[in-house]
Write a structure and sequence with these properties.
The protein is built from two helices and four strands; from the N terminus they run βαβββα. It has about 100 residues and is of the alpha+beta class. α1 links the parallel β1 (about 1-10) and β2 (about 35-45). The two termini are about 25 Å apart.
């Protein structure tokens, strides 16, 4: 799986990038045919500068899965997004098995 991380308007620390990559590698246990994962890291607006948003786009054969989660830290947002995208992956895998 190819992992691409896009921090928007800031430089992400290597610790944060490693954390996200480690979490994304765990998705391969649910579905081993993931082609690419794109992660967008965004800071909140001027009113909510403390909010951190993580958007994950997973490219799998014939489909693209997407999730966006916001919380106070990038790590927490990543954990929330990973939980949601894992559920989507499991449902997609079940649909493929039924065919």
């Amino acid at each position: 799986m190819n992992v691409v991380i896009h921090p928007v308007h800031f430089d992400a620390s290597s610790k944060l990038i490693e954390f996200i990559q480690k979490k994304l590698k765990k998705l391969e246990t649910f579905f081993d045919r993931i082609i690419e994962a794109e992660v967008f890291l965004k800071l909140g607006t001027k009113q909510n500068i403390k909010d951190k948003t993580v958007e994950i786009k997973l490219h799998i054969p014939g489909k693209t899965l997407f999730v966006s989660k916001t919380s106070k830290t990038f790590e927490e947002s990543t954990d929330l997004a990973m939980h949601t995208i894992a559920i989507q992956l499991k449902k997609t895998k079940e649909k493929l098995k039924d065919r």
